[in-house]
Amino acid sequence: MTGSGHCPTVNNVTTGDEIPPRRSRLAGLPVWLVPLVILFVQVMGSTGADHGDKYGHPHTPLDGFGYALLIGGAVALVARRRHPAPTLLVVGLATLTYYLRGYVLGPSFLAAVAALVAAVTAGHRRAAWATAIGGIGVYLAVAELAGAEPGAAGGRARLLHVERPTLPVVVGLTAWALVVLTATEVVRFRSEKAAEVRRTLAEEHRRRASEERLRMARELHDVLAHNISMINVQAGVALHLMDQQPEPAGTATARTALAAIKEASKEALTEMRSVIGVLRQAGDEAPRTPTAGLGRLEDLAGQARTAGLRVHLEIEGQRRPLPAGVDLAAFRIAQESLTNVTRHARPGAGAGAINVWIRIGYGEHDVSVRVDDDGRGTTLLGDNPGGSGIPGMRERAAALDGEFVAGPRPGGGFQVHARLPVDEGGAG
After folding, report:
1. What is the value of pTM for the model shown?
2. Distances (CA, A) of 383 to 136, 390, 396
3. CB-based contact 336:389 (threshold 8 Å)
4. Are strands 345-346 and 376-377 parallel, antiparallel or unpaired?
5. Which residues, including other chains, have CB under 8 Å from residue 311's CB and lie 6 or more apart?
6. pLDDT of 190-228, one tens digit each?
7. DSSP single-letter state for residue 108
8. Spatial separation of the C-alpha atoms in residues 316 and 359, rounded to whole Å
């Protein structure tokens, strides 16, 4: 074998932990910034409305207590992220007291809106709805019981200074509450939907990264195990010949074995560099070396023969180009089968070498790979916790919706059989 294998790339795949959680723009701001802006707008806006008398009806002039309510409600918003429900209660009481005192309207409702939004988006929906509806109900009830007639100059309760609500006031307050609560529900729904999309994307990234790691593990195993096994076998042959056979026959044969070791080690290094290059995300350039596939089957058989195996190749059906994934999987299954024979099988009684039959069958809608040997020895089935050869082959077949069977042959030896479906639209 002279080329280099090419494995699936992992471009643009990251783990889920690398995806930063998306935060809303407001959540990314300092916690004190929104309360500061609301405090400024409420105080300045209400002061301007108080002096301008824009509303044309009697109201209580802003005094120290009124400013304390405006400032206190805004300052309480600093705790809205950690304690949204208590913050909503404090801001709601401050706003309710402000309106029951009959102060000028102005933008004094902004702190209550911010507290409602914070509570709903934090998941306290019932508390938000109960506070809003309950606050409006308390205001209307108290105003009806203790308030003066609209436009009256006197007769108000000393502490409340509130007018009895008219129908437009009742409708307006109810509509205001519904609009604010509905808007916050929309914000909450969109936030939850965006969070779900992010979770789905993160899970997809984790799944893809896991699949890529599994592919890399299979590639590294198949690329290195085969060549290292060849090196191990040839090194054993060379040592045996140098120790047991006299010169010069033993040296000549050992030289052949050492030459095979050199070639196998070169192949292993080339394959390893190819896989490491992909892992390092070296770029999207096309591979400059031959891609592993059934076109390299003769080279694979030749290398196995140098290790002492008798390899017989058989091609059934009309040979044709296959999709890259199917071509690579078929080659790796044949390669790993030969690796297992080299590492684990021994010649049968009276046999000089192990025979291996590799049969590639090109069907109309699939391609089959069958590898039989007549050796004796242990297998690498799934009950062997140290082996990853057969589980890796099974995973390759399963990834392509194919079938895989491996086990002892009735007449002795071992058999591996895989059937991989072929999507003709992806061939090339």
Report:
1. 0.47
2. 71, 10, 18
3. yes
4. antiparallel
5. 301, 304, 305, 338, 356, 358
6. 888 888 888 888 888 888 887 777 777 777 766 666 667
7. T
8. 7
